[in-house]
Amino acid sequence: MRNPTPSPTLTREPGGVSPLVLAAAASVWIALPANWPLWQALARLPETASLRGALFVAQFALMLALLLLALLAGFAFARSVKPAIAVFALAAAFGAHFMGSYGVVIDSAMLTNVLQTNYGEARDLLSFRLAAGLLLLAGLPLWALWLVPVRRSKFAAQLGRNTLAAAACVLAIAALGLASFAELSATMRNHKSIRFLINPLNSFYALGLLGYQANARPIGPLRAIGADARIAPPAPGTRPPLLVLVIGETARADHFALNGYSRPTNPELARHGVLSFSNVTSCGTSTAASLPCMFSHLGRQGFEARTHDSENVLDVVQRAGMAVLWLDNQAGCKGVCARVANAHAHVAPPGAAPLPKALCSDGECFDEALLHGLDERIAALPAERRARGVLLVLHPMGSHGPAYYKRSPAAAKRFLPECTTNALQQCSKESLINAYDNSIVYADRVLAALIGWLERQSARHDTSLFYVSDHGESLGENNLYLHGLPFAFAPREQTHVPWLAWMSPATQATSDMRSHCLRERSREAIAHDHLFHTVLGHLRIHASEYRPELDAFSPCRMAVAAVVP
Q: Which of 49, 54, 200, 387 is the most buried (most CB within 10 A)?
């Protein structure tokens, strides 16, 4: 009689590698090669140039490896250790590429940008360098890992070993931390960006923080604002206002010729008498952070400390009775336009001719697509609201990186040679600046064409245009590229943004605006905090949330009493 085959669920593989050994090996790999941007950043610090500094870096590396092992020990079981290592390794490989290639850090704001990106933006970030980094830092190690058999043991026994290993790691980290406390505390205090380079713990922390923030505010409807919003009685001879608010993308104020930049990046706007506010600070360093903040009545500090989400200036203008339209040419309005009419530039409005093929390709459109069919878009808004005034918000692609060369058509490329890759660190400084400046020149052309369109509306409206960028951009200064650094230590290149204003002669006359005052005012420091109040003041809308001291035009408006009863 043959012996029955043992049940496979009751057997244990005698051979194989312990899950804790695999977790330890993975921890060392992730702590050392996969954290090369962290070690590169530490090596640049003057504090690490000495022998004592080198010893601190070695201690820090050991602490990081132990911390990773303590975390992976929670997953060090036969069935879960490999998937857990794969998650850690892939997150570390992605983080290492973007931190090392562009000088960004991984925090909740940057992770929000990642989660809200669209296909076009994601495609622009793909490169051979990214593929090579993923293959080297994650692909090959994970392939080798998958070939290694894992020793299986009883759950209780493995749990005990894992708990002891995690406890030992924590004790060792505490001992190393005490031994290097002076260097560790000084480094983290004086170089706060270092903590956002610890990979992949920065990504996991940011993800957890986003989850906490999403649940920290009470669930419910937005807090309504502007309940008392009303339009001031029109002065004799005035027409309904038509304000076009262009939210520029990734534009740096110091690359605008209107602000003194040595290159002619604003040749057409200069001929239109456009006013430029040259000392403007953004709400954040990314679209996801700046866009909701700059349309809010709270200001940057109040917005960051808020306990409830509120409506924004678009809601107030609409509540006052005016027509509001948001027209987008990129990754959306981040919820700002959720309660007003909105459309995308790549879809021509009913009654308009199809978009010219030269404007759009591969799912993306040049910003001139925003101007296509504007008459039809305005005519489609409710007539009774148009009779009171129109606020049109345009959200262009602007200078969105890293593929700056894609933001301008060939005919608008004034500066050559141009960087034609998204691996910005591989481009010369000159070609990178050329590609970026060409996007500013193209924005100048689009804005000038928009002013021409507004001039043709002057028979029916008092027309004006504001252009405000959401944030700036690093172009290799201090080995930083793109944007998204935490606001507290972001460089000026990422927070110094342009704010332009143009008003038709009729609008200036009926607004009682003193031009010499505006020119003086344009040199004073203002911020995104002023946008909400400046829009309401310019449209002559009274609401209890309006604060004249934050209206950029208020000091130059002779009839302030007509705006704020």
A: 200
